[in-house]
Amino acid sequence: MATRTIGENVTTTTTGVRRKTFSETYVGEWITTTDHKMIGLMYLITGFFFFVVGGMEALLIRTQLAEPNGKVLSPDVYNQIFTMHGTTMIFLFVIPVLSGFGNYIVPLMIGARDMAYPRMNAFGFWMLLFGGIFMQSSFIFNQAPNGGWFMYAPLSEITAGHAYLATPHMNADFWLLGTTLLGISSISGSLNFVVTIFRLRAPGMSINRMPLFTWMILVMSFLLLFALPSLTVASGLLLLDRHVGTHFFQNAVGGVGGDPLLWQHLFWSFGHPEVYILILPAFGMISEILPVFSRKPIFGYTFIAWSGVAIGFLSFTVWAHHMFAVGLPSVAQAFFATSTTLIAIPTAVKIFNWLATIYKGKIRFTVAMLFALGFIAMFLIGGLNGAALAVVPFDYQVTDSYFVVAHIHYVLFGGTAMAVFAGLYYWFPKFTGKLMNEKIGKWQFWFIFIGLNVTFFPMHILGIFGMPRRVYTYPGNMGWNELNLMASIGAFVLGIGVLLFLFNIVNSLKNGEAAGDDPWDAYTLEWDTSSPPKKYNFLEIPVVRSRRPFYDKKYPEIADWKSVIH
Questions:
Q1: Fewer C-beta within 10 Å: the chain N or C terminus?
Q2: pLDDT tens-place string over residues 235-262
Q3: Whole-number Cα distances in Å, 43 to 104, 121, 299, 322, 432
Q4: Which of 62, 296, 322, 434 is catalytic?
Q5: Could you say which of 149, 175, 263, 523 is catalytic?
């Protein structure tokens, strides 16, 4: 039966005229889709929406702290903004954006038609969106979470009649229920990635031929599956404390002895694997981008792949380095200091391999390559100051200071966010069929790069000078004034960089140059399809014979024999 569209909501057929169903309309198609590419784009759009929200919260924080005795925000509002900034950036920006890349790219990279469980894939996205809206709606009721993104107990308890700093309102409940919804989303997505990667790879794509981005998504998925239950249990126990009257996290309440440190152990046994959940896919992106713009195969594929697995295992052995100052026994401090130092080894392996990849390569300084190189430099700083925090006496001096704030932002913004920008410039032609403007992109890179360092590098010095984190203001006689002003100026420079990026997206969608199917002369299978790909991805499922299947298909006469034999 032939059909022809004659209007937005009406089609004709050989048997008459019928109205389009909801799922056939433009909006309905997006709402009801199970196509991994559309779901991936929805993850990306949602993640960047919350990135803008979290960025505005950061600018409010830096405006408050730009000068001593700031009065831009009240203490309670500052605590809400501070808490939601961290929560938004970690749970509502980084994880969704990485999931978006994974959803869109991984099935294409492994030669699959779709994810293994398309409906579960859609369910994971909608749980993310509802969880994010639920948490942000707390501002409407002036009940936004205000206990920090770590929500330390017993400060987040309801303790009527006891001498604790209680939170008797809904603030903590929004956080606990919201993170549980987001956890359900992450678990469903992780299960889908694991099954898809293990079961739907193209013929010939053995484990040792998988693209490195796919490797890192696989490791990230296992980390989520094993780490999230700890946070879910902790949230459930705290909800029971708050509303049923249990005392899991309160010491000697009514003659019942709970343990205030239990929350920290449960939270950080999720929280530190979470750091690697947020950075491992970024490692995978960089490992795909550097070879293409260096015109060389990745150096040490096996070491990069299995060092990611090693990081995954070791990430579960380092959580208590967040707790050196709480009075852990010396043997525990020694163990966690050692494990934290050991995890630097597989991380350093990756950095040396990336540098070896670009060494003597024919480098093309595209915007994607600039962000990839910026990632290496910024993540190296974050890794080095992280190694310093593994030294227990030094950690005693700077724990809960702005030195730690500098460390986490160099890792997650200088690391993950820089890699995300690199990935967007690299894969934008595949998403849209158009190239992003390179001139605007280079301006954006320098605003981001300079703003990042002007914002966060002074925080190292502020931490060493004794400025505590999580304070809403400070006196003017502590020697912190100029450095805080510098950090606040840098934050607005970062904001300009983000605005340039958003303008570039809109301008490129409207006026961007047609990219073609393979604008970068790339290596992996996602470029062996149209841009953007058809719903079925591939007319024929490709057969893989090397680690660079598309490159070797294009240039069989110069195929690298070393990659072919693997």
A1: N
A2: 999 999 888 888 898 876 555 678 889 9
A3: 9, 11, 31, 31, 15
A4: 322
A5: 149
